[in-house]
Amino acid sequence: MIVTTTPSIEGKRITRYCGVVAGEAILGANVFKDFFAGIRDIVGGRSGTYERELQRAREIALKELEQRAAEAGANAVVGVDLDFEVLGQGNGMLMVSASGTAVVVE
């Protein structure tokens, strides 16, 4: 499955549009992770814990996007857009959504 943020795929011709597909991932932040990330914010530096959670959420959303595209009969997704949001009480949840157009290319 080819997944790209561009509206077309160089060297490939789109022969059919299968519709818009999306994938989402919502992950809760652990209290201990929040505590240690807070300490990291105070002393400076990057929060590896949050970076790993963000990466995991992005991978889940993109995998779900690919599955939905395959179910629609597509072999590629073009125009992919990734959105990141924090949700819930105290912004304790991370949401990543991926959307794009499922297509068939030759």
From TrEMBL:
Gene3D superfamilies: Hypothetical protein apc22750. Chain B. Coiled coil: none annotated. It holds the Pfam family YbjQ_1. Signal peptide: none annotated. InterPro entries: UPF0145_dom_sf, UPF0145_YbjQ-like. Belongs to the UPF0145 family. This is UPF0145 protein P245_12380. It comes from Comamonas thiooxydans.
